Amino acid sequence: MKLNELGLLVVISGPSGVGKGTIRKALFKIPDNNFCYSVSMTTRKPRENEVDGVDYFFVSKEEFVRRIEENKFLEYAEFVGEYYGTPVDYIEKNLDAGKEVIMEIEVQGALKVRERKPEAVFIFIVPPSKQALLDRLMNRGTEKTVDIQRRIEKAEREYHLAYKYDYIVVNDDVANAADRIYAIIRAEHAKTERSIHKYYKLMEGKTNE
Amino acid sequence: MKLNELGLLVVISGPSGVGKGTIRKALFKIPDNNFCYSVSMTTRKPRENEVDGVDYFFVSKEEFVRRIEENKFLEYAEFVGEYYGTPVDYIEKNLDAGKEVIMEIEVQGALKVRERKPEAVFIFIVPPSKQALLDRLMNRGTEKTVDIQRRIEKAEREYHLAYKYDYIVVNDDVANAADRIYAIIRAEHAKTERSIHKYYKLMEGKTNE
Q1: pLDDT in tens, B55-75
Q2: Residue-level pLDDT at B209
Q3: Is there a contact between A183 and B180 if contact means CB atoms under 8 Å apart?
Q4: Residues of chain A with CATH 3.30.63.10
Q5: Considering CB atoms only, which of A1, A190, A195 is closest to B184?
Q6: What is the fold of B9-202?
Q7: What is the CATH number of domain A1-34+99-209?
Q8: In B56-140, beta strands by DSSP E
Q9: Is residue B150's pLDDT more than 90?
Q10: What's the CATH architecture for A39-97?
C-alpha cells in the first residue's frame, strides 16, 4: 500500500552520451509499472515513423509561442530554428492520475524544471568512468574532430553539475541502472514528507483504505 | 556499481505490535543481501536456545556499567532491573566493512540513536489501519485488560512520532514491506550527498573502480 497516491515527476538527466535514452527505455520494460513518458512539444516537422502524441506533440510556431506566453511549458529551448518544450498540462494530468511521469532531458533543461518543480525527483546518470564517457562520445557516428572536441568539453562542464541533483546513478549496466531508478521511485513514495498526511488520516480512520 | 562503499545504519522502528520483528526477518531472507543485524547487549541471563553474539551479547552488570561510562552505547535502557543497549563498536566495524547494519528498536530508543547517528536511515513501520494495530495488540497472548489498555495508550502516543522519521512503510504485507525497505536502502546509497565525493574522484580517474 502506497501512502502517497499522487504520481512522482522523475527527471532523468546527465551528461551528453551517458545513455539516458537507453536507461529510460529499460525502465519502461519493468513489469507492472505505472510509468508515463513526458512527451515533449516541438515545432519541427515529424520524421517518418514519428507519431504525434507519442514521440512528440507536433505544433505550429504560432501555437508554441502562444503557449510560451501562457506559461504552459515547464521549460523550453530553441535549437537550429525550432522550438522544443515540456508541456506542463500533460504532466499534471498524469501525476494527478497517480502515474509516475518520467522525463528524460539534458542538464540545462533539468535545472530549469527544478526551479518550477522542486518536489520532482532529480536523477543524474553518470558513466562508470571518464574513459567510458569519452569512448561513447567518440564512437557516436562519423563526426568531425572539432565537433567531438566540442562535445567532450560540454560533457565535462555537465558532469560537474551532479551536485544539483538528488541522486546519482551509475550506468554500469543498463538493467541495473533502471532497477536502481525504480528503487528510488519506491523509496521516494515512502518518504515521510510525502506520506505523513495520508498516514495521520489513516490512523484517525478518515479513509477506508 | 555503488558509489557509496560504506554500509548504512538502517533503523527499523514503529509502534508496539506493528510487526517490526517479522519484517526484519523477511528482510534478511532477501537473496544476496549484505545485511548485518545489530546485536544488542544485555545483563539479563540467556534463555534456553539463546546464543551469545547472535541473540544478544550477554555481559555482567559491572561490564555494562563500565561501557556506559566509556560512552560505548548508541542507546541503552533499564527494564525490570536489567540493562539493554546497542554497542557502538560492533556497528562501526560492520559499517566500515560495507555491510548494511539493520537495527530493530522501539520508538524511544530510535530517537536516542538519531541524536548520535543523524546520518542513519530511520524507517517507521505503520499498520495498514488503526483497527489492524488494535487487533494485534489485543490478540497478543492472554494479558489482563488493564495491560492491554496500557499498551494501546502507548501505541497511540508512539504512532504520532512518525514525523521524526525519514520514511514511513506500511506493513500491509510482510514481504512487500521488506521489499520496500530494500528499495529505500538502494535509493539511499544513490543519494547525492552520500555518493558525490566518490563520483568526482571517479571522473578525475583517481580510483580504479
Answers
A1: 999 999 999 999 999 999 999
A2: 44
A3: no
A4: 39-97
A5: A190
A6: Rossmann fold (3.40.50)
A7: 3.40.50.300
A8: 56-58, 73-79, 82-87, 100-104, 121-126
A9: no
A10: 2-Layer Sandwich (3.30)
